[in-house]
Write a structure and sequence with these properties.
Keywords: Transcription, Transcription regulation. Self-associates forming complexes of several hundred monomers. The chain has one domain. It is 60% helix and 0% strand. It has seven helices and no strands. Helix 1 packs parallel to helix 6. It is elongated. The protein starts with 10 loop residues before the first helix and ends in a 7-residue tail after the last helix.
């Protein structure tokens, strides 16, 4: 018998999951991985599973699928922030090189600017500094990223 794919998570379910994770973030975002910490994390995910299924009893979810959703939201948030940082840096390089902005938009097009969703914004707030690029004083872009790195707040 094949495992059936569950229903997609709704926006309301995602936001509620993030509320539950936010309540347990001191345990779940702890970088320790010893036996005691892992047990605490497992228990926290079981509590999240219970609370989540209490709120949405029509479509019960397992802790593993909730954790997978949260990990996917974190990954997507980091990708969006990295894309934004990259596009901001490219824009900065173009400005430094004194390229005329009209040349870029001559065809009436423009460039794609990824926007954070509400869920990604909440994840970004929880992750804090872990999405910022590492500082490297020997990198030619270090000065730019220390001043203009995207962290969810406009520069």
């Amino acid at each position: 018998m094949e495992a059936r794919r569950g229903k997609k998570f709704t926006g309301e379910e995602k936001m509620f999951l993030l509320e539950l994770v936010d309540l347990q973030k001191s345990i779940l975002l702890c970088r320790k991985s010893d036996q005691v910490s892992n047990k605490q994390k497992t228990d926290a995910w079981k509590k999240i599973e219970h609370d989540f299924n209490s709120r949405f009893p029509d479509n019960p979810r397992k802790a593993t699928s909730l954790k997978l959703l949260y990990d996917n939201l974190k990954r997507k948030t980091r990708q969006t922030v990295a894309e934004t940082n990259r596009s901001l840096y490219v824009k900065h390089l173009k400005t430094v090189a004194k390229k005329d902005k009209r040349e870029i938009n001559k065809t009436g097009g423009g460039s794609y600017k990824p926007q954070l969703t509400d869920a990604e914004g909440r994840v970004l707030a929880m992750l804090g500094d872990s999405v910022k690029p590492l500082e490297n004083p020997y990198d030619s872009a270090a000065d730019y990223f220390s001043k203009y790195c995207y962290t969810g707040v406009s520069p």
